[in-house]
Every structure is written in structure tokens, then in C-alpha cells.
Amino acid sequence: MPTMLSLHMPVLCYKTSSYWTDIGTPQALFTANMDALQGHVRVSFPESVQNKNTRIEPGCSIAKDADLHGPLLIGESSVICQGASLIGPVVIGANCLIGRNTYISHTVLLPGTVIPDNAIISGGLIGKNHITEEDKFTAKGEYQCQNV
């Protein structure tokens, strides 16, 4: 906006009482996702299966022994493998793959993210190609994301 003002370009505004946030930072994007998932923002989830606080979009494959505790949003065509635990709040974007025996809590996964087997993720905004087989473990056998 400062550049627009310095160039004498018009800057307009719109007054609203609706929820609005600038999602230009990872922290803001994470917060907006959590707000929507936890009901602070009115959002419709068309064609999703609702089970208490869990929303599962069409085309998902979820292992029968996966442990799901909402609030959760599992995006279209995502795969949750055997032994995975999702402890909400968790947002899984479309076309994600959650590996076997993986634990995820208080996390947002962007579309197309692949989480390898045996990963432990608590708190974070994770994007496609963010975690690899080489860096998933710490000395204690855990992968811990930085809190956002």
C-alpha cells in the first residue's frame, strides 16, 4: 500500500463486520485455518461427512485403525494410513498422504503434503516437500515442527 500511495494510486476500503484477516504470513495462515476449523468463522464444508467435530471430504481413504479426534478437516482425496493418529485441531489439505504410525496434532498441512511413516508432528504449518525421509527423525526418533 505505501507504494500505491507514493504513486498517487487510489486506495479503497470496504467496511465489514465479517471475519477477515490478511493471510500473508505463515502465522496468519495457520491462525485463519484454526479459526475456521474451531468454528470462530462461519465456513461451509459442502459434500463433507460430518462426525461430531470431524469433516472428511470426498475421495479420502482412511485406515480402519486410524485414531481420529476432532476437530479435524481431512481434505479431498487424502490418504490416512494404518496406525495414524490425528488429534485435533488438525487441518489436512487435499491430496495429502499421512504415513503409517504417524502422530499429528495442532497442525495445518497444505495440499499435496506427504508425511512419512512414524513421524510425530505437534504444532505447525507444513507444506508440500517440507518433510523428507532424511530429516523426519531427531535423536529421540521424533520429528518436531516449530510452533507457529
Model description:
- With 148 residues, the chain is of the alpha/beta class.
- It has one domain (26-135): Hexapeptide repeat proteins (UDP N-Acetylglucosamine Acyltransferase, domain 1).
- The chain contains 2 helices and 11 strands.
- It has helices at residues 2-6, 26-37; strands spanning 49-51, 54-56, 61-62, 67-69, 72-74, 79-80, 85-92, 97-98, 103-109, 114-115, 120-126.
- Strands 1, 2, 4, 5, 7, 9 and 11 form a 7-stranded mixed β-sheet that branches.
- Strand 1 and strand 2 form a beta hairpin.
- The model is unreliable at 135-148 (pLDDT under 50).
- It holds the Pfam family GMPPB_C.
- It comes from Dictyobacter kobayashii.
Low-confidence stretches: 135-148
CATH-derived architecture: 3 Solenoid
Shape assignment: elongated
Arithmetic mean pLDDT: 84
Helix content: 10-25%
Name of the CATH first level: Mainly Beta
Structural class: alpha/beta
